[in-house]
Amino acid sequence: MNAEYITVLNTTTRTVDLEGWTIRDKTGYTYEFGPDVVLGAKKRITLRSGQGEEPTAPRGTGGPRPT
Fold it and tell me: pTM for this one?
C-alpha cells in the first residue's frame, strides 16, 4: 500500500452508527460507510487506499488489535 490511510476513533462510551458517514480525500475520492457499520465504544476502524499489496492485518481492525 502507499501508506494512505485514515483511522476513525470513537472516543465516546457509546456505539456510533456510521451508516451514511463519508470521508473524502484531497483528490476528491469519497468513501461512504454502508448499512450495518457500527463502531463500538472506544474502538477504531482504519480505511486504507492506494496501490500495492493488501495489508496482512484484518480489515477494519486498525492493526493487530481486535475492535
Answer: 0.65
